[in-house]
């Protein structure tokens, strides 16, 4: 499965892949650029942006949402402002019913000033990204949210490798639950992924089903220095 990620501050249509497309962009744009991008947002999105009071979060939301509209509009052949969305029972975003014939699926993830977009045709897809950092409560989160085998693999890592191992596991699990459309309502201990740095990203188990037969495929990648991300896509 080919994997490409493009770091841009202006939207360009990446090369179309038979499996999926990935696009990475930075969100830390100049105020003038943010103001221009806000014009393509819907009234509801602009209201959401106005309610964000954390420093920088409003601008990051505007840029991320406008980029999504631009990327979708380019693939649908419509203006960014005319893209409409619907949402699943657990909040997973999708295109509105009038775009159903396109078969286009997408997912978005943000961390700090990085946003990652994933696109596929007629296949569900999920993506997640995180800045790799030390968390004071990482061991407690792993014990609570990882499966027994994942937690054992995590604890077996050296202290130097644990932050990357933790976020390898977290992004892979998050990408999976986003792909299946259940978000964090899906029991995180009910499926297992690989996490050791340097090892391939793999779904090891989903319920009682071995990963190679679970109907999903996974890859991990680094969209920018200091970040790790994962993508999960429905198998053909």
Notes on the protein architecture:
There is one protein chain. The chain has helices at residues 31-38, 43-50, 57-76, 138-145, 148-155, 162-180; strands spanning 7-8, 21-26, 85-87, 93-95, 104-111, 114-121, 125-131, 191-193, 203-206, 209-210, 216-221, 227-234. By secondary structure, the chain is α+β, with helices and mostly antiparallel strands. It folds into two domains: 7-123, Ribosomal Protein L22, Chain A (Alpha-Beta Complex), CATH 3.90.470; 128-234, Ribosomal Protein L22, Chain A (Alpha-Beta Complex), CATH 3.90.470. Helix 2 (43-50) packs antiparallel against helix 3. The N and C termini lie close together (12 Å). Residues 1-17 have low confidence and may be disordered.
In short:
The chain has 6 helices and 12 strands. It is of the alpha+beta class and 236 residues long. Helix 1 (31-38) crosses helix 3 and helix 2 runs antiparallel to helix 3.
